[in-house]
Amino acid sequence: MYRVRGSESRRTAETRPRRGSIVAIVSGKGGVGKTSLALNLAIRLAARGKRTILLDAETGVASVDILLSLTPSPVASALVGHNPASRRRLTGGPMGLRVLCGAPAADADHRMRLVRRLAARCDVVVLDGGTGLSAAALPVVLISDRLVLVTTPEPAALADAYATLKRLVQRGFAGPVGLIVNMARMAHEAERVMRRLVRVAREFLGLEIEPLGQVPHDRHVSQAARERVPATVRYPRCPATLCIDDICERLWPRVPGRTGVSRTWSHVASLFL
Description:
Blueprint: H1 2-15, E1 21-27, H2 34-47, E2 52-56, H3 77-80, E3 89-92, E4 98-101, H4 108-119, E5 124-131, H5 138-142, E6 146-151, H6 155-170, E7 177-184, H7 187-205, E8 209-216, H8 219-226, H9 231-234, H10 239-251, H11 263-272
Parallel strand pairs: 1-5, 1-6, 2-4, 2-5, 6-7, 7-8
Antiparallel strand pairs: 3-4
């Protein structure tokens, strides 16, 4: 009798969906390339076979659908709730990425439920954390498993990045934090910024930050933006793309035998998402 219950318990555990990681990409101020970086990181993760969904922590939808010229497609109501007014749209993007499009979510509680449900159905949910962590975005970012802080070498961007990190720590975020220095003109400049922020966070916040790398100031990125094509798709071998690939490897080391876009994910997504 007890064996049967144990077997049932094991079967339930085995069939229970494994929740994917929730990764929030945040910055302290606008103009540091955070949204573009979140989009391109998500694309490269999807290209590595990770079932990846991208959305905005502030609105519950992605602001990059315009940049990608995406046309939303319906998503099953069971994914986000049975209220027709609360339905969202998941749309196929480059390399198997899924992007959440549609009307903004009503409140932070709804967005948190939405993110958790999405995480149960993929490997990675990438959150564009908004600029400066608004009151709307903060609760959603706080449920993330990992934080990626984006800054540039500009002193104002660095100061705002630290202020954002301090606010998150004060609100109870205790997950791992990574740091990316974007639009650096020289490698040594990015390294200096990373060392400085790592030292200050350790000294004043008691927090260890993992330097994930730097993305150089690359004309291919702005050119791709004008063409409304992600840089990692339009220019897969440009310096910025290669650095983003290195960052992806640090975030999720490649598993032998799992390369390229997951065909299974693409098929399942087309059926259920």
